[in-house]
TrEMBL record, chain A:
Signal peptide: none annotated. This is Glutamate synthase. PROSITE patterns: 4FE4S_FER_1, 4FE4S_FER_2. Residues 534-563 form the 4Fe-4S ferredoxin-type domain. The keyword Cell cycle does not apply. PANTHER family: GLUTAMATE SYNTHASE [NADPH] SMALL CHAIN (PTHR42783), GLUTAMATE SYNTHASE [NADPH] SMALL CHAIN-RELATED (PTHR42783:SF3). Keywords: Iron, Iron-sulfur, Metal-binding.
Automatic annotation (TrEMBL), chain B:
It comes from Sinisalibacter lacisalsi. Keywords: Oxidoreductase, Pyruvate. Residues 1-10 have a biased composition (Polar residues). It comes from the Bacteria. InterPro entries: PorB-like (IPR051479), THDP-binding (IPR029061), TPP_enzyme_TPP-bd (IPR011766). This is Pyruvate synthase subunit beta. Residues 78-238 form the Thiamine pyrophosphate enzyme TPP-binding domain.
Length: 565, 356
């Protein structure tokens, strides 16, 4: 037993000998990097939270590097993507989602302006060469990621220019050609990428031939053939399918005569929206979109929502496009073989006996509209020539995440069957390139990111200051032409200010809360980065497991897990 | 323990904790600084103390020491803080520290200050006590210290009852709180009397600076400590420090409980200089007191739907909060970056407002 003698004293700080960490009985705090919902929702696989963190520290170039680690075309996606990241953004529940696409676009443009170098090293001269069919967003992304992973890429494109549907089907009002060319050319100039133009599959090359000559083949042919469309067997003689109409218009700027009258567009995607707006601008008397989906609203189910870029929908309505939602064309009224009217009927997606939703038309809701032209825009499918034995119906429908349809053969983008956005094609390109690199190295397929997502209720919102979303200028309806970009850009100051709105969901904000508020001094701040990328480590020798840091962590980066031993 | 044993042990401890050698003959620590030693703040109160999980008082004392140290000495009244920081033969303090009785820490501090003055040193004296030692038992010596104008910062860690001895009511216990000596039951709805308005009594001593702070707002708390440290003469700080054990709330909720106390108006953060109100932390949107009370077991009887007295007491506490908001003019005028909402905000790299 210790004798307490007169005149002795306790040495300073000696309580450190007593490890209060063994008091923890039920829980201990740990750092868990959860996915921010924007990252989880991004079809291209961008980690928006990560690049916003760089911007918050005032490093736009690092932010761009972090961004292009997943998506080499931010200037493009910042303009054309329907940004599911913004829909998923937790800030929606505070004061509006972050303007992610505007900042992404600024970063892409700034990289072009400043000439920031893509973070790639030239592949070895004898590196395996991967053949890529199609120079659309998916093919370009695949080529870029092949080079990033030390492979060489040779692209075969049927058309005289690269870009795929970015060039052929997206109007310059959404994606100015200068912006597209600037980013594309920088990408194509990267060492290790060869582009062969005017090489059509089935005419100049074949899948079998490519498989013999190259280490692997990535197919990103896109969808070129319209899905067959008829109304109960009837097809007008002068049928103009939406995507073809759009391509013709982009090529030589003309529309059929009937497009001067009353036009009905049947469909519910971005092509339908683009064709509506172009026809209206070209002088159609009226343009009405008939869509089976619903318009955005508080009660609209996510699987019922019309699949277009939200601001495109808003702009179309401003321009006078009428939209009839939850409806379909049920009958064509013909005069000879020309269409003079359509009968439309209300419908909804309803759950059937087997629990699956299907469309149900409601008898008694039919009405007739007189029209001069009907444009179907119900989607496209893969042109089947040259893909003998590889297609599963109209598309490739790969049965795995990576798009593998045969050994060393992968499908990318729209042709997979369930994609439909530029961002998804870009994501496919990356995933396929990673799988190819692994397969060629004799390794297992890369594992998918299984991190949990940080939901809004995992945040402590007491620590976030209110800040409204950056306002973005938009061309007034009267000034909109076929060429001028409608949505304006933001500047450096606005981009950096917008970045400060990022909640950093699931990832350390370095706010010092845990370090400041631990009653037991058990959170240690590091000047260097800790192992997990944060600036803090837990000293479990002293942590009593009170849970205070977990509660007061704004981002949910600190979580309490059951104490094991 | 022989003398050589003692010095060996001292040397061992010095090696371990990285203290500089006391004399040239003493061996230097033969290792680089540990992460803990390299913390960019003064570690006046170290880990290994025996405070309960989520202790608001331990947190408050640590924050005070960070801002006040290192050139300070502490006189500490009996109470939780004294007990959990100094279990013999260990101490969590890294400054000279003296344990006084319950009733005389201000008197001991007065003596320490006089001694320092006599030695020509500028070392600031801090005097610490809980609400029991301050509002009740040590009140007389505190008043004397203030009246004699000693250059001492007196900090009271207000956890609103005698927690160390088993949650007995003090004069700081709020109205209607249940404690072991003011139990809620058939006769009474917890404590019958009101919380003593100590700050007004202190301010009536006409001292240079008296303020209230809360662990929910560390930046504000530390600013007040720094301000008081710069004042020549007696200064006083009362810090609202939730006690998970005595208030019966989850240990993880210490900060949240403290924050709601401020946001509802029951614990106003005010500053008084020479008896006059000179600053307040405005409340952006006053929360109902029920938001604050519902987190705590000591007020659980106020939420008993079957007891007709419960609503009356809730209304009484709401009226007390509204009264505070009224007399101190706490209601904010729009958005203020240092109000009860803005003061919490952070950005990447640290607090949005306040200094670090």
């Amino acid at each position: 037993m210790t004798q307490i003698t007169r005149g002795t004293w306790a040495e300073a700080g000696t309580s450190l000998d007593f490890k209060t960490g063994n008091w923890r009985s039920t829980q201990r705090p740990v750092h868990i990097h959860a996915k921010a919902p924007c990252h989880g929702a991004c079809p291209a696989g961008e980690d928006q939270q990560a690049w916003f963190a760089e911007l918050q520290m005032g490093h736009p170039e690092s932010a761009w590097r972090s961004l292009v680690a997943a998506n080499p075309l931010p200037g493009v996606t910042g303009r054309v993507c329907p940004h599911p990241c913004e829909t998923a953004c937790n800030r929606v529940q505070l004061d509006g989602a972050l303007a992610i696409h505007n900042v992404e676009r600024w970063l892409g443009d700034e990289a072009v302006l400043q000439g920031w170098d893509y973070p790639v090293t030239p592949p070895a001269k004898d590196a395996p060469v991967v053949a890529i069919v199609g120079a659309g967003p998916g093919g370009l992304s695949a080529a870029y990621h092949c080079v990033r992973l030390g492979l060489r890429a040779e692209i075969f494109e049927a058309l005289p220019e690269a870009g795929g549907l970015l060039r052929s089907a997206i109007p310059p009002t959404r994606l100015p050609r200068t912006a597209l060319d600037a980013e594309l050319n920088r990408l194509l100039d990267l060492p290790g990428i060869t582009l062969n133009l005017r090489q059509r599959l089935g005419r100049d090359i074949s899948v079998e031939g490519l498989r013999e000559r190259f280490a692997a083949v990535l197919l990103s042919p896109g969808c070129e053939s319209p899905k067959p469309w008829s109304v109960k067997g009837a097809v007008p003689a002068d049928l103009h399918e939406g995507l073809a109409l759009l391509r013709d218009f982009m090529d030589h700027g003309a529309l059929p005569d009937a497009a001067k009258g009353d036009v009905i567009v049947h469909g519910g995607g971005n092509t339908a929206m683009d064709i509506c707006r172009i026809m209206k601008r070209a002088g159609a008397k009226s343009v009405t979109l008939i869509t089976a989906s619903g318009l955005p609203g508080p009660d609209t189910a996510p699987d019922d929502l019309i699949n277009v870029v939200p601001r495109e929908l808003e702009e179309a309505q401003e321009e006078g496009i009428e939209i009839i939602d939850h409806a379909t064309v049920s009958r064509l009224i013909m005069k000879g073989s020309r269409v003079t009217g359509v009968e439309i009927i209300a419908l909804r997606k309803e759950r059937g006996k087997d629990g699956r939703k299907r469309r149900v038309e409601f008898e008694g809701t039919e009405r007739v509209i007189s029209v001069d032209m009907v444009v179907p825009c119900v989607g496209e499918q893969v042109a089947p020539e040259a893909f003998e034995g590889l297609l599963n119906g109209a598309y490739f429908w790969p049965d795995n995440l990576y798009g593998r349809i045969a050994p060393r053969t992968f499908s990318i983008g729209d042709a997979r069957g369930n994609r439909g956005t530029v961002a998804a094609a870009i994501g496919d390109g990356r995933i396929a390139a990673e799988a190819v690199a692994a397969e060629l190295a004799g390794e297992e397929d890369p594992v998918a990111d299984a991190r949990p997502e940080m939901a809004f209720d995992g945040l402590n919102t007491a620590y976030y200051a209110g800040a409204v979303r950056v306002p973005v200028a938009k061309l007034p309806v009267a000034e909109r032409t076929f060429d001028a970009e409608i949505e304006g850009g933001i500047g450096r100051a606005e981009a950096l200010a917008e970045a400060q709105r990022c909640l950093s969901c699931g990832n350390c904000l370095a706010c010092d809360n845990c370090w400041t508020m631990c009653p037991d001094n058990a959170v240690i701040k590091t000047t260097e980065l800790a192992m997990d990328g944060s600036h803090y480590v837990f000293d479990y020798d002293y942590c009593k497991g009170c849970g205070l840091c977990t509660e007061e962590c704004p981002t949910g980066f600190i979580q309490s897990v059951p104490e094991t031993s | 323990m022989t003398k050589s044993d003692t010095s060996t042990r001292l040397n061992e401890l010095r090696m371990k904790h990285g203290r500089p050698p006391a004399s040239p003959s003493e061996p230097k620590a033969e290792r680089t600084e540990t992460l803990r030693e390299a913390q960019p703040r003064f570690r006046g109160l170290e880990s290994g103390h025996r405070a309960c999980q989520g202790c608001g008082e331990a947190l408050a004392a640590r924050l005070v020491m960070e801002s006040a140290g290192p050139d300070v000495m502490v006189a500490n009244a009996t109470g939780c803080l004294e007990v959990f920081t100094t279990p013999w033969p260990q101490s969590a303090w890294r400054v000279p520290w003296i344990h006084s009785l319950f009733e005389n820490s201000a008197a001991v501090a007065s003596g320490m200050e006089a001694a320092m003055k006599a030695k020509g040193k500028n070392t600031k004296i801090l005097s610490f006590g809980g609400d029991g030692a301050t509002y009740d038992i040590g009140f007389q010596s505190l008043s004397g210290m203030l009246e004699r104008h000693h250059n001492v910062l007196y900090v009271t860690y207000d956890n609103e009852a005698y927690m160390n001895t088993g949650i007995q009511r003090s004069s700081s216990t709020p109205h209607a709180a249940t404690t072991t000596t003011s139990p809620a039951g058939k006769e009474r709805m917890g404590k019958r009397h009101l919380k003593k308005d100590l700050l007004s009594i202190i301010a009536a001593h006409h001292i240079p600076y008296a303020a209230a702070a809360s662990v929910a707002y560390p930046q504000d708390l530390q600013r007040k400590v720094r301000y008081a440290m710069g004042v020549e003469g007696p200064t006083f700080l009362v810090i609202h420090s939730p006690c998970p054990l005595g208030w019966r709330h989850d240990s993880a909720l210490t900060i949240e409980v403290a924050r709601r106390a401020v946001q509802c108006g029951l614990f106003p953060l005010v500053e008084l200089e020479r008896g006059a109100l000179t600053n307040i932390m405005p409340i952006r949107e006053p929360r109902p007191v029920a938001d604050y009370l519902e987190l705590q077991g000591r007020f659980a009887h106020l939420f008993n739907k079957d007891d007709y007295r419960a609503q009356e007491e809730l209304d009484h506490l709401q009226a007390l909060a509204d009264h505070n908001i009224d007399i101190y003019g706490l209601r904010g005028d729009g958005v203020d970056p240092v109000d009860t909402t803005g003061m919490s905000h952070v950005k990447r790299g640290g607090p949005l407002m306040g200094e670090r």
